[in-house]
């Protein structure tokens, strides 16, 4: 009998890590084979199920990614940019599919992911949910249909613990709006206005970030013209939407050739 794909979770004690552990153990099409945390973390050497306050799951949390990746068909990674690029090189060495949910990735991180993707499948997206990926497509279409008389603003809200801004999703939506307009986001991005900013520049794509409480993730794409406005909105109320997407990506990646992919490739939209 063929074994189900084995999946390792990095950042297993995190908000997303724990949700992913629960998601995989409940899934009939995958097995949990590894859990990684950073060196010195209190959970190292302990059973992940017991650490999470439940029954033992027979998987010990380790700080040795290569050992865990070597027995994995996929790695699901929601950690931090510096950790993610290290995991990418090791996952590629093990030829495991690497699903990257980590946000705050900068050009130097993307270059390292590109290198690793010569040897293995990497699926990376600032948001793994079906709803946001559909919203991204809609944003591109609406931006393509409207001219620069319509000011584009992206407003996002997240929980008080989030460390990066604008969110990965907001940047995804901004890239889609810029692509729809046929421009490069870098030339139009306007983030974090403060003080005497002067009037808004025609064609800018603006970003605003709100942080507070336990907000899971909310995104508005506002198209504002004289006399009318269009607002495209996604509200996340449960992190299970990201878990569903990440698991789908890990399984989809099993039959792909090495390279870089995103959630729109996975969802076929
Ligand atoms: N793409 C998507 O759909 C989503 C992306 N995210 C992103 O995922 C990332 C994590 O989010 P949360 O779970 O809320 O954060 P968190 O802070 O709760 O968890 C991050 C975990 O990574 C661990 N970690 C950091 N460096 C490590 C290393 N070198 N080795 C092993 N473990 C390491 C931390 O100890 C922590 O347990 C963020 O970048 C966030 O923006 C979050 C939700 C959805
Ligand atoms: O940090 C989070 O929580 C989230 N991060 C992602 C982002 O940066 O867009 C996705 C989601 O909004 C939750």
TrEMBL record:
The active site is at residues 158, 162. This is 4-hydroxy-tetrahydrodipicolinate reductase. It catalyses: (S)-2,3,4,5-tetrahydrodipicolinate + NAD(+) + H2O = (2S,4S)-4-hydroxy-2,3,4,5-tetrahydrodipicolinate + NADH + H(+); (S)-2,3,4,5-tetrahydrodipicolinate + NADP(+) + H2O = (2S,4S)-4-hydroxy-2,3,4,5-tetrahydrodipicolinate + NADPH + H(+). CDD domains: DHDPR_N. NAD(+) binds at residues 11-16, 37, 101-103, 125-128. Belongs to the DapB family. Pathway: Amino-acid biosynthesis; L-lysine biosynthesis via DAP pathway; (S)-tetrahydrodipicolinate from L-aspartate: step 4/4. It comes from the Bacteria. One of its GO terms (molecular function) is 4-hydroxy-tetrahydrodipicolinate reductase. Residues 7-128 form the Dihydrodipicolinate reductase N-terminal domain. Gene3D superfamilies: Dihydrodipicolinate Reductase, domain 2, NAD(P)-binding Rossmann-like Domain. Residues 131-267 form the Dihydrodipicolinate reductase C-terminal domain. The keyword NAD applies. Pfam families: DapB_C (PF05173), DapB_N (PF01113). The keyword NADP applies. Homotetramer. The gene is dapB. Keywords: Amino-acid biosynthesis, Cytoplasm, Diaminopimelate biosynthesis, Lysine biosynthesis, NAD, NADP, Oxidoreductase. It is an enzyme of class 1 (oxidoreductase). NADP(+) binds at residue 38. Its main location: cytoplasm.
């Amino acid at each position: 009998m063929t074994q189900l794909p084995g999946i390792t979770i990095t950042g297993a004690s995190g908000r997303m890590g724990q949700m992913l552990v629960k998601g995989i153990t409940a899934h009939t099409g995958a097995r949990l084979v590894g859990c990684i945390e950073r060196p010195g973390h209190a959970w190292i050497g302990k059973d992940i199920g017991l650490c999470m306050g439940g029954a033992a799951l027979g998987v010990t949390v380790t700080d040795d990614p290569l050992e865990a990746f070597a027995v994995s068909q996929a790695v699901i990674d929601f950690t931090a940019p510096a950790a993610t690029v290290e995991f990418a090189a090791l996952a590629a060495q093990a030829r495991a599919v690497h699903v990257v949910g980590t946000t705050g990735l900068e050009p130097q991180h993307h270059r390292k992911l590109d290198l690793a993707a010569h040897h293995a499948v990497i699926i990376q997206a600032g948001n793994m949910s079906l709803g946001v990926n559909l919203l991204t497509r809609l944003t591109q279409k609406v931006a393509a249909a409207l001219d620069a008389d319509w000011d584009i603003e992206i407003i996002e809200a997240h929980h008080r613990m989030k460390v990066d801004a604008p969110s990965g999703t907001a940047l995804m939506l901004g890239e889609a709006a810029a692509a729809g307009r046929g421009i490069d986001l870098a030339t139009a991005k306007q983030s974090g206005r403060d003080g005497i900013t002067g009037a808004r520049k025609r064609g800018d794509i603006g970003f605003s970030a709100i942080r507070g409480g336990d907000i899971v993730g909310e995104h508005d794409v506002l198209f504002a013209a004289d006399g009318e406005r269009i607002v495209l909105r996604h509200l996340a109320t449960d992190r299970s939407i990201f878990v569903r997407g990440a698991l789908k990506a890990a399984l989809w990646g099993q039959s792909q050739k090495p390279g870089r992919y995103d959630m729109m490739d996975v969802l076929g939209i």
